[in-house]
Amino acid sequence: MHDAAAALAQSLRHAVSDERVLAAIASVPREQFVPGCERAHAYDNTALPIGYGQTISQPVVVARMLELLELDGSERVLDVGTGSGYHAALLALLAAEVFSIERHPELSEIAQHALEPLGIENVTLFVGDGAAGLPQHAPFDAINVAAATGVDVPGALLDQLAAGGRLVAPVGVADQRLLVFRRSGERILCERHEPVRFVPLVSDRL
Predict the structure, then answer these.
(1) CATH topology for the 46-196 domain
(2) CA 20/CA 95 separation, integer angstroms
(3) DSSP-based three-state secondary structure for 56
(4) Which end of the chain is less congested by CB atoms within 10 angstroms, N or C?
């Protein structure tokens, strides 16, 4: 366990009650996923720039998204918007298999270099349009979208949810909220949660 990461996890208990999520945050060194110039702030509860117009999300928001996915360790997960790989690293500890897609090849390479020293082997990285998902690997038990989708979640992502699957995404333009979508038979149910602020999902489809 990393001391600074453990302290960060402890500080998030006011917002997150899932012990598996908190244990994952305590186990992953966040400084591994931020640029050198930002490492002094790696354990601040704030979003940080990672280049290419993207950010590593605020830890409390990452933790809440993980909690809302309700993972038990058996799932195949799609992570949309790899960024520097922090979210994927946490998902790797909470699920069986993670498929993470990033539009910027440079960021995907940065993520690969960050994940390798941690010995994480159940994450596969892809470069491509996150709004399209990875239909060749679907269905997914859970989908994490780490960028704002605009007014609606891309239908291609909802189509890739397995029976009982959950998708968590920041949805909205000026006013974004975390939404959870659940597949129940032929229906997709939606729950609204707290307001958030994410960079937009970069896609040819949006």
Answers:
(1) Rossmann fold (3.40.50)
(2) 11
(3) strand
(4) N
